[in-house]
Amino acid sequence: MSEQQAQPQAREERPAQGGRPGGDREQREPRKFRRGGRNKRKKVCYFTVNKITHVDYKELDLLRKFISERGKILPRRVTGTKAKYQRMLTVAIKRARQMALLPYTTE
In a 3-state reduction of DSSP, which class is residue 49? Predict the structure, then answer.
């Protein structure tokens, strides 16, 4: 009995054919500017900057800054508030709505 060890053959290199047209990333130049011409500005927490430690449901002017035109609470990614203050803000807005100080919707 002669033993033959079959060694796996190396795969032949295939030409890059990408699934999408124009997919050669190495040949493209890197983008220097963002689309739309706007630079992303660092968002800062309104409450940290103004040293507000407690969000009160009676401060309607403050709460209205964080509500959209439709009456929805704006998310953190839009306003830039920290998670701690976003939770306090949400509770205050809901409390003000419950007491009819703020509307649930604009309609």
Answer: helix
